[in-house]
Amino acid sequence: MNLVALVAALAVTPFGAAWAQVRDTGDYLRRMDTDADGRVALAEYQQWMGHAFERMDLDRNDVLDPEELPGGRGRPVTLAGHRESLAEAFRRQDLNHDGVLDARELAAPPQ
Asked: Where would I find the EF-hand domain in this sequence (predicted)?
């Protein structure tokens, strides 16, 4: 299961409930921006986007096995692989390549 499929699947599970409550880009930025500097760094992005992974990893082995994935099937997803996929998505969203995401970049889908 790739990152896009995993995120889409999580959005309709109880683990995705926090995402469903985000009302606008500013709200999204405020929730992700843990140091309140008005920008989202890679570590903040990975922490926010990785929350569902942590909740789903019931045996805490840093691997989502098929039975832990939505639908109970798919290839295992490692935490390291998930974080790398998030880093790739982050780099695609960082349109001005400054190493952080602002509200405008967060609102745009990854290129």
From this structure: 81-111
State how far the Cα of 52 lies from the Cα of 64, in Å rounded to an integer.
Answer: 11
Strand duo 40-41 + 77-78: pairing: unpaired
- Residue 12 pLDDT > 50: no
Domain boundaries, the chain: 3-107
Q: What is the pTM of this model?
A: 0.74
